[in-house]
Design brief:
By secondary structure, the chain is of the alpha+beta class. Helix content is 22%, strand content 35%.
């Protein structure tokens, strides 16, 4: 597929560094249901779009995230469509506050899912944490904030699942975790990127303060069987 790899990041992630988490064929692929609802087609051709629609489960949905999602095929309905922005950073501003940050993995999967379910930073399922490296902050043993990596291509790695327990917001935890994740991505020779809904001006202002700039607009669409 031609164009910038982040124009259709899901397809390009499933065709490269995250291929082991995917299912589908050469026309359309999706993440395994316990990992993520995201799916994409290789191009907007009728055959590819039909294949993409076939990946929508009988009970449930799939999510598209790209510059120009196709119209759904017959038998599939768009249940949600929202404008977003995609941002990238060539460098990350330095940490302003120091917090005890720990690595998170399989042993913390239940805690991570519980925090994401409470705060709803975006689609997060039982194995979403396996997509990349996650870090978190605790208070008296309780996981109160986290951030990690989601979509990955050969050149770009997405910062995602940035969330803080409502009782701990306003302390700078999210920014500190994003700096940690972003600095590690850059140290590995990749470029960090992220997504935000276009109307989330507070979050976008934070991301700009960390060094992110808007690359393009994207659409987050949800497809379900009619």
């Amino acid at each position: 597929m031609s164009g910038h790899p982040l124009d259709n990041p899901i397809w390009n992630a499933l065709g490269s560094r995250l291929a082991r988490f995917g299912e589908g064929d050469a026309s359309a692929r999706r993440f395994m249901p316990d990992v993520s609802p995201f799916a994409a087609a290789i191009d907007p051709s009728p055959a590819a779009v039909t294949a993409l629609g076939a990946l929508a489960p009988e009970a449930g949905d799939i999510s598209l995230l790209q510059v120009a999602p196709p119209a759904p095929p017959a038998g599939v309905t768009v249940t949600m469509s929202a404008l977003g922005v995609q941002m990238i950073a060539a460098a990350i501003t330095r940490n302003e506050k120091n917090f005890p940050i720990e690595h998170l993995g399989d042993a913390e999967a239940a805690e991570m899912l519980a925090l994401a379910t409470l705060t709803r930073p975006g689609p997060f399922r039982t194995r979403t944490h396996a997509l990349g490296r996650f870090v978190g902050i605790r208070d008296n043993g309780m996981l109160v904030a986290m951030a990690g990596e989601r979509l990955q291509t050969d050149e770009f790695i997405e910062i995602s699942a940035v969330c803080t327990h409502p009782d701990y917001r306003g302390r700078g935890y999210g920014a500190a975790l994003m700096r940690t994740v972003g600095a590690r991505i850059i140290a590995d020779g990749a470029t960090p990127f992220l997504h935000s809904y276009a109307d989330n001006t507070t979050a976008i202002a934070l991301y700009k303060s960390l060094g992110f700039e808007t690359r393009c607009e994207v659409i987050h669409a949800v497809w379900a069987r009619s």
